[in-house]
Design brief:
With 512 residues, this protein is mostly helical. The protein has a domain of 226 residues. It contains 20 helices and two strands. It has a two-stranded antiparallel ribbon. The longest helix is centred in the C-terminal third of the chain and has 36 residues. The chain is globular, with a radius of gyration of 23 Å. The protein starts with a helix and ends with a helix.
Length: 512
């Protein structure tokens, strides 16, 4: 069973190499290669997760070296959740990307490399190995954002690269301070050695600060969030769906690992300022991210600023540092990945089918694309936290954890964030379902000179050709992907409470 830990990283790496080599022989063969690799990885991750929720984690040391000298892979309830989430989401997005593109073998090779990096970050038990996978993830993400046509994706990727490099450098510097203080890189051993050195040591405090700030950049916590709106909005729609669902999600999971596996709750108890920094980052991100989302007119930029707010909730749960809040953080990470990834993919489907990319252009959307409007509506309500969607369960656990921890300001901000989330999604829902669709160019041209409603006429050949061309851009796979995301947003909400109970042994060990 433990050998599968290495395979869940090896499958996408092998698939990436095969896709790249296959492109030398025949172009556009990357998609089937990626599907085979992702099916194998999903099966391995699911099999690995079966034994990961017990009283002890599944471990594997690469090369047979004894920990802490070898690179250890650790699969418990948290890491198994992330590994399965990465595999399932990446496989689902492939169903969307087959028609939406990009279609080159280089794209799918990079796609699989990103999946390998995210999976490695999820299951590693070594902080330097986490940095290596963090860099693999970053480089692949920069390339995927730049894979779109035109100058906007290139500019977004350059900004992402510059800011992301700063975050990775701070993370590496934090690892260096921890190594100087302890002489080890294995997370479990590092935790014991840090406790021996003392949590009030300047080296230990500096390491914690650098590691946390470096991950804040990767998560996109305000004010180091500036790369995210540009990257999400500028990337191709399939890439936006993938990175919005997984990149910051796995970085937030890494923050949980660093805070609780490496430094532990005892460090937070001994350094109240560290907890204050986490709370401040959470509160500011929740409020400012929501306010900025309200001010946006472009759908993808609004969704990007929404992510800044939503990840603030996870950082807040980490600051609370009790079992209820951490359970909520994990549920929220899973729910956000499904819902936000689904929203970005749905916005891409709507744009391909109708050309609408702004909030005002969503007027009467239910008449033009019922499937797109229905999926967007369900996912948006899930993000608000309307039961029984998974968004409600995650927020409920985090808010309850804040109350248990007597973090009253955070509890109030969580309530306010729900109202703010409702504010920026309600205006879209109102336009989609309660306004009439704007007239087509053919209908507008037949409107009477006195301003009466346009007469129903047969569209011209030019308009008909444009409509047909748009409809041809949307495949059954694209529609199925967004509908499955909407369905999962509801079903996961029903199953979330049982999942929370499964997580209890893992979280108890984390907080012990």
């Amino acid at each position: 069973m433990s050998d599968l830990a290495a395979l869940v990283v090896a499958f996408p790496i092998l698939g990436s190499l095969v896709a790249l080599l296959a492109g030398l022989v025949r172009s556009e063969t990357g998609w089937p290669v990626a599907v085979v690799a992702m099916v194998a990885q999903t099966a391995a991750a699911a099999a690995l997760a079966v034994g990961a929720f017990g009283s002890s984690p599944v471990t594997y040391v690469v090369g047979g070296f004894t920990a802490p000298f070898g690179i250890e892979l650790v699969i418990d309830g948290l890491s198994a959740t992330m590994a399965v989430l990465v595999a399932v989401v990446a496989l689902g997005v492939l169903g969307y990307a087959r028609r939406a593109g990009p279609r080159s073998n280089a794209f799918y090779a990079t796609y699989l490399l990103l999946v390998a990096g995210l999976t490695g970050m999820s299951i590693t038990g070594d902080v330097f190995n986490m940095y290596v996978f963090l860099e693999i993830t970053g480089l692949a993400a920069y390339a995927l954002v730049a894979s779109g046509e035109g100058g906007r994706p290139a500019r977004a990727a350059l900004k992402y690269l510059l800011v992301g490099t700063v975050g990775a450098s701070l993370f590496l510097l934090g690892i260096g301070y921890a190594y100087v203080a302890t002489g080890t890189l294995n997370m479990a051993d590092l935790s014991a050695q840090l406790a021996a050195v003392g949590y009030t040591s300047p080296l230990v405090r500096a390491s914690f600060g650098l590691l946390v700030v470096g991950l804040f950049v990767k998560i996109a916590v305000f004010p180091v969030h500036t790369w995210q709106p540009a990257a999400y909005a500028g990337a191709p729609d399939s890439v936006s769906g993938l990175i919005s669902a997984l990149v910051s999600t796995v970085a937030a999971y890494a923050l949980i690992r660093i805070v609780f596996t490496v430094f532990t709750v005892d460090f937070l108890a001994a350094n109240e300022f560290a907890r204050t920094v986490l709370v401040a980052g959470a509160v500011v991100s929740i409020v400012v991210g929501s306010v900025l989302a309200i001010t946006q007119r472009e759908i993808k930029r609004m969704l990007a600023y929404s992510s800044v707010s939503q990840f603030g909730l996870v950082v807040g749960a980490i600051a609370v540092a009790n079992g209820t809040a951490l359970t909520g953080a994990m549920i929220h990470l899973v729910g956000h990945a499904i819902m936000k990834g689904g929203l970005f993919l749905t916005s891409g489907l709507v744009a391909d089918e109708t050309g609408a990319r702004t909030i005002d252009a969503y007027e009467g959307l239910v008449e033009r694309t019922p499937i797109g409007a229905a999926a967007f509506g369900v996912l948006a309500l899930g993000m608000v936290g309307v039961p029984p969607a998974v968004g409600f369960v995650g927020k409920w656990y985090i808010a309850l954890g804040a109350v248990e921890g007597e973090a009253w300001p955070l509890a109030v901000v969580i309530l306010v964030s729900t109202l703010l989330t409702l504010a920026y999604f309600a205006r879209i829902l109102e336009r989609m379902f309660f306004r009439e669709a704007p007239p087509t160019p053919a209908e507008a041209s037949t409107a009477d000179a006195d301003g009466e409603s346009p007469r129903q006429t047969v569209v011209t050949d030019g308009v008909g050709t444009e409509v047909a061309a748009r409809a041809a851009q949307v495949s059954t796979g694209m529609r199925a992907t967004v509908l499955v995301a909407a369905l999962l947003a509801v079903l996961l909400g029903v199953a979330a409470f049982e999942y929370g109970q499964l997580l209890e042994p893992t979280i108890d060990r984390l907080l012990a």
